[in-house]
Design a protein that fits this description.
alpha/beta, Rossmann fold, Ribosomal Protein S5, domain 2, 9-stranded mixed beta sheet, 4-stranded mixed beta sheet
């Protein structure tokens, strides 16, 4: 009889201990260890990358790079962009996001349309019935012949059926609902998620087909289950958005076959998700003219330049401790920039409440947004609007200097395309760029004090 082993495993990082601990020694989180009773009936490895007779080879004799035929395009441009140009055969892709954000809708809509072009897709669900999937497919308009739907939770049965059908793509929705007979633990537990992920990834590698794993997220926004799950898969995608906004952003945080800086933008409508080919135009559509506390930054997301509005509100604090509320950019960055404004430009914000927000539900984490945040804060503090038709980008140092950023020409061309007349940029980025070439007036600055002199002219 197989031996039952009891361990206490951290839900966040996967650390295991023979007894319960109040705090995980690995990730230092409190009360994250849960009891796991596991029974392993097979001692062989779960993931096998090569055949039984495979041998080491010299790297000079191997094939390099991804050929065009190794990628399979879904046909949804924004989805393919984030994947790095399409699905890679044999890859495992993990898709996470908040409940109700549209993960299942995105996959069913994209791969349902993919099946309608003569391909075979297997959609395995552990959360909904086949009838419910059919209703959603009718709403999305993807009731196509090549799309097979199966409500099943046993990973052993699923693996056998996938090997029998050999579809071109498989979706598992969601990974926390499946279970393995070889593990004596509840579905969704750390041991079960780790076991079934190994099994499903093994299927993808052995049959050379791409698979999608839908993952739940915790209240902190991380994918639920052991952290090893994100290490095992080839690509990790997060579907982001706010309940009050109709726009959704698909972002890659790990991609072995493409850039992790790419984003895809979708608009949620009654008939499903609609691709937004020009996000800059959408994010700036409702920007108020002549309002103080508003600036536009040219942000680089992978190979795409996105223009977004940064808004700031600075008001005298009514209580003893001023409030600092930030949405869409790093909280500590705003505190740092407010301190630079006070020290280097004489704008005293210590006794004021500060609110900073990126419009449209976007999140910006690149240094190029520093100067635009400075512009929005100073604009609202002085109650002066930044000059119309101005785009701003640049990194701000602790000494008050403005540092150059990457790919300034691409940012300027995107701004000119949307009708902006002038750009405030770091002096270090001016070399080799002319106003005539990019079609926009260039104003270079080297310090925060210089920038304050040109924001409102």
């Amino acid at each position: 009889m197989a031996k039952v082993k009891t361990l206490y495993t951290c839900r966040l990082c996967g650390y295991s201990a023979p007894k319960w601990l109040g705090r995980c020694p690995e990730c230092l989180e409190w009360e994250s260890l849960v009891e796991e009773r596991s029974v392993r009936t097979q001692g062989k490895a779960l993931i096998r990358m090569g055949s039984a007779d495979s041998l080491p080879v010299d790297i000079t004799e191997t094939k390099g790079g991804l050929a065009e035929e190794d990628r399979v395009k879904t046909g949804t441009g924004e989805f393919d962009r984030v994947l790095g140009g399409g699905m890679v055969k044999g890859s495992a892709i993990l898709v996470g996001g908040d409940p109700g954000i549209g993960k299942s809708t995105l996959l069913l809509q994209s791969l349902g349309a993919f099946a309608g072009r003569g391909h075979s897709v297997l959609y395995v669900t552990g959360e909904e019935s086949v009838a419910q999937i059919r209703l959603r497919a009718e709403r999305l308009g993807v009731v196509n012949k090549g799309l097979k739907v199966w409500a099943e939770t046993s990973v052993e049965r699923i693996a056998d059926k996938v090997e029998e059908l050999r579809p071109e793509v498989v979706v598992f929705d969601s990974v926390q609902t499946f279970y393995s007979d070889t593990v004596e633990a509840a579905p969704g537990s750390v041991a079960q998620v780790r076991e079934i992920s190994c099994r499903l990834i093994s299927v993808a590698k052995s049959l050379n087909i791409p698979i999608f794993l839908v993952g739940h997220v915790t209240k902190d926004g991380n994918i639920a289950g052991p952290k090893i799950l994100e290490h095992m898969v080839d690509t990790v995608l997060y579907f982001e958005g706010e309940s009050g906004h109709i726009y959704r952003v698909l972002r890659a945080v790990k991609n072995r076959f493409g850039s992790v800086m790419e984003i895809g933008v979708f608009e949620m409508k009654t008939e499903g998700l609609v691709e937004v080919e020009n996000p800059s135009e959408v994010f700036l559509a409702e920007r108020p003219e002549g309002a103080s506390g508003s600036s536009v930054v040219a942000s680089l997301e992978g190979t795409r330049t996105v223009l977004v509005e940064i808004q700031a509100l600075v008001a005298p604090a009514l209580f003893g401790v001023p409030r600092r509320t930030v949405v869409g950019v790093d909280y500590n960055k705003v505190l740092l920039l407010a301190a630079i404004l006070e020290k280097k430009a004489g704008i005293t914000l210590a006794s004021h409440d500060i609110f900073v927000k990126v419009s449209g539900g976007m999140k910006i984490d690149e240094p190029a947004s520093d100067l635009a945040i400075i512009a929005a804060l100073s604009s609202n503090f002085m109650d002066k609007a930044v000059s119309a038709g101005t785009v701003i980008f640049g990194e701000v140092g602790l000494a008050g200097e403005i540092r150059g950023v990457t790919q300034p020409e691409a940012r300027l061309k995107e701004a000119a395309k949307l009708g902006f007349k002038r750009a405030i940029l770091p002096r270090g980025n001016l070399k080799g760029i002319s106003s005539k070439a990019v079609g926009i007036k260039l104003i270079d600055v080297s310090t925060v004090k210089e920038a304050l002199d040109v924001f409102f002219k």
